[in-house]
Amino acid sequence: MSFSEFELDTRLEKGIATLGYSKPTRVQQLAIPEALDGLDILASAPTGTGKTAAFLIPAIQYLLDFPRNAPGFARVLVLAPTRELAYQIHEVAQGLASSTDLKVGVVTGGINYGSHRDIFEKNNDILIATPGRLIEYMDAESFHCENVEILVLDEADRMLDMGFRGFMTRIAEDSRNRKQAMLLSATLEGRGIIEFSQQVLTEAARIEADAPRRERGKIIEWTHLADSADHKFELLLHYLAQEDVTKSIVFVKTREKLDALVQKLQSHDIYAAYLQGDMPQDKRLKAIERMKAGKATVLVATDVAARGIDIVDVSHVFNFDMPRTADIYVHRIGRTARAGAKGYAVSFIEAHDMAITQKIERYTNQQFKHRKIKGLEPKHKEARIPVKKKKVVHKKKAAKLTKKNAKKGGKK
Ligand code: AMP
Questions:
Q1: Closest ligand 1 atom, CA of 3?
Q2: Is there an atom of ligand 1 within 6 Å of 212 CB?
Q3: What is the pLDDT of residues 18-28, one digit of tens each?
């Protein structure tokens, strides 16, 4: 199947080509025809399925079919849970609309009010927003939803989880003049999301796209035993000098450790981008942009700061400091091997990391292979912590014992 089968406006087809999409993904194949027919959409579509274009393509086609006849606020409103997602949607929307006159704006928390002012004045056709900040503008009467013709709630399950239900309901009620609504969620399970979708959608086409397992590449994991933070740094330097380490994310435990590592790298002429929790939004975006554009090849981040970022071509994830929990480990290493590529996850383990390392092994059902690098071998040996085993009594044996005991009791 190709995009031409949707009979889209040639300007929109050009935009699709600009983004390099040659054929629609499954969720696009399923959702676009229904949405072009004007139906409400209820889609289970996790990240990575192509869900963004699945709602933007029909929305843009609508705007091109029915051009604006009076100035006003946005006609397509997209709500997203996080700033990063909002900016990613913005990027795709700008690409798709690049051969049209449509204007696309984005409004999120963490950016000065001043820089948003023109967003509302410019007659945006498509506005992408996080719910909290949009409500602030609505309260200040700098924006209203009366002109919204298509309402999109992306990652609605996450927005509900984040406690945005009240805001979402109010925005949905205020955009009562809409002709269409689309709700996307990683899953359509759970009472919250079902109830909410019933409240917002009317006779929606239900679309299910599986998680893009096919598009996931393989992650190859190994570890290095390390004697100290300095030893870990030497190991990291070794890796960063390798040709196949083209783009990496280095995870550290705390902000202080992040500062120290970034400076140490600088003293070795490695100018890493970095993300820390309390960074202003424009600086965050710049750091992510530097990585995406390949201007920086190393990103140092804490777990909190790295939430929600999506950089496609990360070759290596380094756990400079081990994470606190096993599921954070799995989350961290998932930053590589995107879009079908192979990825590598390398962890540096000090003696005090043994407990969490073994936890991760149990959680991921594998035993790590410790590698050594010539000249950088560890002095300490692996000291595995013995796992306390619960006494397991086999079922049959237990039954026998009970019988025996019963007999004994009987003899008495
Ligand atoms: P999404 O699920 O919208 O976050 O998209 C996941 C990734 O797939 C993004 O990097 C998109 O640019 C990419 N993508 C979306 N649609 C297509 C398509 N039809 N062909 C190729 N890549 C696509």
A1: 19
A2: no
A3: 999 999 988 99
To test the pocket of ligand 1, the residue of 23, 25, 49 to mutate (highest count of ligand atoms within 8 Å of its CB) is 25
What φ, ψ does residue 43 adopt, rounded to 5°? -125, 135
pTM of structure:
0.60
Nearest-CA residue for atom 22 of ligand 1 = 21
Map out the domains of the chain with their CATH numbers: 3-208 (3.40.50.300), 218-364 (3.40.50.300)
Give residue-wise pLDDT tens across range 227-272.
Answer: 999 999 999 999 999 999 999 999 999 999 999 999 999 999 999 9
CA-to-CA distance for 112 and 114, rounded, in angstroms?
5
Give 401 Cα–ligand 1 centroid separation in angstroms: 61
Query: For residue 51, how far is its CA from the centre of ligand 1 (angstroms)?
Result: 7
Distance in Å, CA 196 to ligand 1 centroid: 27
